[in-house]
Design goal:
This protein has helices spanning 133-136, 285-288, 326-333; strands spanning 4-5, 24-33, 38-46, 54-61, 68-69, 89-96, 99-106, 141-147, 153-158, 166-171, 180-186, 201-206, 216-219, 229-232, 237-239, 242-250, 256-263, 271-274, 296-304, 307-314, 318-325. It is mainly beta. The strands form five sheets. Strands 14, 15, 16, 17 and 18 form a five-stranded antiparallel beta sheet that branches. Strands 1-21-20-19 form a four-stranded antiparallel beta sheet.
Length: 338
């Protein structure tokens, strides 16, 4: 089974009229505002500056396909001098009550034009050896922000360990057993002591989102299309069959594809089912030709009636959407019990 990509993809492309998003619009978080009948996309954006300053922009749609930007300026940008002064990128959204909770990846120093230097982000050159490792090595950490209206956004702090490079972090949309649940991808947790040979998906339970967490291994690379590493994609969706959880897998050539798994409703540390083949792969020009070639990278998914909308970044530069019947996907997943 494969997701069906929209015939008018990409649905969001860089905007030459706004310098801050003139090069990149990609990797969007998504939320369906049922009250107003609209889908909101919070997307990663960047211009053509040498430092590659990365922001978050906002767009909305009444049909899930045709999006209109809501602002001429970003809704969130890196601080000029602070703990997320490098980038704010790859957001994920959930909602508790009236508040949207946004997780986003950030680095202390702006990465520069990483696609021009063998895929590596530039490191700072003026940091003393006594400085924390996150600063010395420009590690990616995950921040938490909260808003009611995307006009006033409060940065809350980091919800990941200060010495780990931990991204692809997302919050479950409701508590499980009175605990917050988060997915993580600590890049350093590899080796015999961690039970995985490649970067994997970890799960954590906590009373407070900012408390020090002790994640446990949830899933590791298992199939050829994901043997380089895997990571969570979009926040899990509660269904009758379990928590539907999309994830990305990277093969030995660095190509990003998408798979799905079902987690137990009462104990999401248990993987019930998992697709052995990807449900979405890079194949079109907007996925193959961009800043990073061969990428389908979802950060957002919503369900409207029985249709699952998956919003994803293509080639680190564009936004696409793919859909399927939620019922059919759950039936498909049910064939592959773990």
């Amino acid at each position: 089974m494969r997701l069906i990509k929209h015939h008018d993809n990409p649905i969001l492309i860089p905007c030459p009229d706004h310098e801050w998003e003139s090069l990149v619009t990609t990797n969007p978080a998504a939320w369906y505002d049922e009250k107003h009948g609209r889908v909101m996309l919070l997307y990663r954006a960047a211009g053509k500056d040498a430092q590659h300053r990365v922001h978050l922009g906002l767009a909305t749609s009444t049909n899930g396909y045709d999006f209109v930007r809501t602002n001429d300026l970003p809704v969130l940008s890196p601080l000029e001098d602070g703990w997320d002064s490098g980038t704010v990128e790859d957001p994920r959204i959930v909602k508790f009550g009236e508040h949207y909770f946004i997780t986003y990846a950030s680095v202390p120093y702006r990465p520069g034009r990483y696609w021009e230097v063998n895929g590596s982000r530039q490191l700072p050159g003026d940091v003393p050896p006594e400085a924390p490792v996150a600063l010395r090595e420009n590690k990616t950490r995950t921040g938490l922000a909260i808003t009611k209206d995307f006009k006033t956004i409060r940065r809350v702090g980091y919800l990941t360990d200060p010495v780990l490079d931990d991204r692809d972090v997302m919050i479950f949309p409701e508590k499980v057993g009175c605990k917050f649940v988060t997915l993580h991808r600590p890049i350093e947790w590899v080796g015999e002591e961690f039970g995985c040979e490649q970067a994997s998906i970890w799960i954590a339970f906590s009373d407070d989102l900012l408390e020090h967490k002790r994640p446990r291994l949830l899933a590791k690379p298992q199939y050829p299309w994901e043997m380089n590493k895997i990571g969570g994609a979009a926040p899990p969706i509660r269904t009758y069959a379990g928590w539907l959880t999309l994830y990305h897998g990277v093969d030995e050539k660095g190509r990003y594809s998408v798979g799905a798994m079902l987690l137990d409703l009462n104990d999401p540390s248990i993987v019930l089912c998992r697709t052995p083949e990807p449900i979405m792969v890079p194949e079109h020009s907007y996925e193959e030709e961009g800043l990073y070639k061969g990428i389908c990278f979802p950060c957002g998914n919503v369900v409207i009636d029985d249709t699952l909308f998956v919003y994803y970044g293509g080639a680190d530069q564009f936004v696409g959407v793919a859909t399927c019947s939620l019922t059919l996907l759950l039936d498909h997943l049910g064939r592959f019990k773990q």
